[in-house]
TrEMBL record:
Transmembrane regions listed in the UniProt entry: 552-569
Recorded family membership: Belongs to the GDA1/CD39 NTPase family.
BP-aspect Gene Ontology terms: CTP metabolic process; UDP catabolic process
Gene3D superfamilies: 3.30.420.40, Exopolyphosphatase. Domain 2
Region listing for Disordered, in residue ranges: 1-22, 632-656, 717-741
Protein name (record): Nucleoside diphosphatase
CDD domains linked: ASKHA_NBD_YND1-like
Length: 741
């Protein structure tokens, strides 16, 4: 199930090509205006492959200049697109024995992809990170060090991306750090940070818990309630970020990882347990977690006919599968630091009255890839999901194969997916309900005695109350993938904002300060904002995104017409060229000797086209979106590694467990233009980015201008007019020519 902007929260090119195949000339046009944006590149080096992500956001100085009071108290707004992401196989860990080959045979393709997206004049100021998980963690220390060193050296030699510190930018991150980044990403997209008042879960709590599961490990990250936070203060991480106005916001988060609890390694442990049991025949293991009649090798390869090796025969008994998988949770393992959840690992008590979790990666794929047709747009509930899995797994394997061929469950479900889903579903249910303790919606009640409607859709209540189900699987929120890489880049972008008061570092570390504080690694190199117009391609791109979010043909036509008018009229030189062209046409069409018509025509002498025209410049920027909730469809990736786990404040220094008070100040600047549905939802009947309480860069006519001072325009003998703004220049919300005085 995908969460979308209209009800959930904020957001999606390989290169600067647009969807219809924009040419490289548009990329050249784009460059001059790009000093208003910052860029970041991050490579997720997992076990099965490496994925490059490119993100962009407004230059902090520009964001602060244009933000209204509300947006000043928000984090930087990052953007990306599906085309900004590119994955190649295999993973970098396969180069452990030959590190010299990792550059030309692996990294170069990813670097080229990023260089096609980031404007050339921004590359030197764009940071690049490679964060390795999964396979690289399993390499011997010497091989790991040699591989990471070669990666950093190659990137420094072959690109101009900002890479000043190899240890900071190229590293293996532990699972708990990966979980923290994922927690940042989820809350950033859901709106828990920027709109806490819309996500009050009770007891001053407004953030969401985060669950991630890949092939080899699983992570959990959440902010405990205030009682548990005090009791287990030494177990928490202190996370500090910075809002647009430079204020520090802090959160106290618990995060941990369970190695061996990813779906692939859990399956390996399960097969080992089967082997340890008595078989009915010397070469056959009976497995209730495989569809009826399916026979495989111990490694999971389908066997046709007889085999001399030990095989596994599917029984299709899902209830027994759940029971067989349960011991793998390690609930009976010794717990040295109470309380514990899985395998004796300490986790503070979870208050499901205020802790609501989102699950990504395998939590999404296992609940949606096969069962999406019947389960999409519904909040996860144990009874419905278990019934669907049970019905599926009881089918004969031959029937399942036929249904796969007929695309019954969609084009992304192949025989391998269908073969593995029964065990994966059992493992997920065991982890969620018997391991972590997520209430079985519709069956159990939470600790506070609140029952949940098991068929309730998030969209029915999310706008008013936020996401209140105890668990929900997600893949994308407002078309942006919930990835730990986003969390890392949000932290970096927040670190670029100069502090408004005490210079507290942005990053994370032990809550009680008993250890190193890992800073975000942000650079403060100023990027001149400039006075030049933003490029046509950038304007078209942003306006098209906003128009698309409105989803109405009439609005689309209006927006593209508006873009065309901006393009034609935004510069005086273009107006004059158009005027001369039209006048020349009229002169050619007028018969010789025919009298001229009296009066001044629109094109001949109006202030819009004539020499006395004021020098107008468009001032149109991206907007900061508010966060709402909505369910929507999202495409699933064709692999299960969407995170590194596939290794298988408030204002000032306050805790993130309390709702911040917004100090409203006068901010004499036009707010961002934002045509998103979120801003419209928060506006009171104004639409198109207008909202109460502050100036907007968009009036009802939809046009924005910047005027030059009258005195400057009337200077005689001063040569060509300067484009520099007058000290008395002010922004006008109306596209109206200057009146004569």
């Amino acid at each position: 199930m995908s969460l979308d902007a209209a009800e959930l929260g904020p957001f999606s090119s390989t290169d600067e090509k647009m969807s219809d195949g924009e040419t490289c000339s548009a990329r050249i046009l784009r460059t001059p205006g790009d000093n208003k944006r910052r860029w970041g590149v991050i490579l997720d080096a997992g076990s099965s492959g490496t994925r490059v992500h490119v993100y962009k956001w407004l230059n902090p100085a520009k964001a602060r200049e244009d933000a209204d009071t509300e947006h000043l108290h928000r984090l930087p707004k990052l953007k990306t697109k599906p085309e900004y992401t590119h994955k190649i196989r295999p993973g970098v860990s396969t180069f452990g024995d030959n590190p010299a080959d990792v550059g030309p045979e692996h990294l170069q393709e990813l670097l080229d992809h990023a260089l096609e997206i980031v404007p050339a004049n921004q590359v030197k100021d764009t940071p690049i990170f490679l964060m390795a998980t999964a396979g690289v963690r399993l390499l011997e220390p010497l091989k790991q060090k040699a591989l990471l060193g070669e990666i950093c050296s190659y990137a420094q030699r072959h690109t101009d991306f900002s890479l000043p510190d190899c240890d900071l930018h190229i590293q293996v991150i532990p699972g708990d750090t990966e979980g923290l980044y994922g927690w940042i990403a989820a809350n950033y997209l859901l709106g828990g940070f920027d709109s806490p008042q819309a996500h009050q879960h009770g007891k001053g709590h407004h953030t969401y818990g985060f669950l991630d599961m890949g092939g080899a490990s699983a992570q959990i990250a959440f902010a405990p309630n205030s009682t548990e936070a005090k009791k287990h203060a030494n177990d928490l991480k202190l996370l500090r970020m910075r809002t647009i106005n430079g204020n520090a916001v802090e959160y106290k988060v618990f995060t941990t990882t369970w190695l061996g609890f990813g779906v692939n390694q859990a399956r390996e442990r399960y097969v080992e347990a089967l082997q340890a049991e008595h078989y009915t025949t010397p070469h056959e293991l009976l497995d209730p977690c495989l569809p009826t009649g399916l026979r495989t090798t111990l490694a999971g390869e389908v066997v046709e006919g007889e085999s001399p090796d030990t095989t596994i025969l599917g029984l299709g008994q899902f209830d027994k599968c759940l029971a067989r998988a349960y011991p793998l949770l390690g609930k009976d393992s010794p717990c040295e630091d109470e309380p514990c959840l899985l395998h004796g690992q300490h986790v503070p008590a979870i208050d499901f009255e205020v802790n609501h979790f989102v699950g990504v990666s395998e939590y999404w794929h296992t609940t949606h890839e096969v069962f999406e047709m019947a389960h999409k747009d519904k909040a996860y509930d144990w009874a419905t999901y278990q019934r669907m899995v049970k019905d599926f797994c009881s089918e004969e394997w031959d029937d399942i194969k036929a249904n796969v061929a007929a695309k019954k469950w969609g084009k992304k479900v192949d025989e391998k997916t269908a073969q593995e889903v029964c065990f994966k579903a059992a493992w997920l249910i065991d982890i969620l309900h018997d391991g972590i303790g997520i209430p079985r919606v519709g069956i159990e009640k939470s600790a506070a005695g609140i029952s949940y409607n098991r068929t309730k859709e998030i969209g029915a209540h999310a706008k008013d109350k936020g996401f209140l189900d105890p668990f929900q699987a997600v893949n994308k929120i407002d078309d942006m993938e919930v990835s730990w890489t986003l969390g890392k880049m949000v932290l970096y972008a927040a670190g670029q904002i100069p502090p408004s008061g005490e210079n507290l570092p942005v990053g994370f570390g032990p809550n009680l300060g008993l250890g190193p504080f890992q800073e975000a690694g942000s650079n403060y190199n100023p990027v001149p904002i400039g006075d030049d117009d933003e490029s046509w391609s950038e304007v078209a791109e942003d306006m098209a995104e906003k128009a698309h979010s409105r989803s109405t043909p009439g609005f689309l036509l209006f927006m593209f017409t508006l873009i065309f008018l901006f393009y034609i009229f935004r510069k005086r030189e273009r107006r004059l060229r158009l005027y001369r062209g039209i006048n020349a046409t009229f002169r050619r069409s007028r018969r010789p000797g025919s009298p001229r018509k009296g009066g001044r025509g629109f094109f001949s002498s109006s202030k819009l086209f004539g020499r006395s025209s004021g020098n107008y410049e468009r001032v149109l920027e991206d907007g900061m979106q508010a966060q709402d909730f909505e369910l929507a469809e999202a495409d699933s990736s064709d692999d299960n590694e969407h995170s590194d786990s596939s290794e298988g404040s408030r204002i000032g220094r306050t805790s993130g467990l309390a709702t911040p008070k917004m100090n409203v100040v006068n901010f004499d600047s036009a707010s961002y233009f934002d045509g998103s549905s979120q801003m419209a939802a928060q506006s009171v009947g104004l639409g198109l980015g207008m909202h109460q309480g502050g100036l907007s860069a968009m009036d009802r006519s939809g046009l924005v201008v910047r005027t030059e001072s009258r005195e400057r325009l009337q200077m005689l003998g001063a040569g060509r007019r300067s484009r520099a703004g007058s000290p008395t220049r002010m922004k006008s919300p109306l596209m109206t020519p200057l009146e004569e005085v």
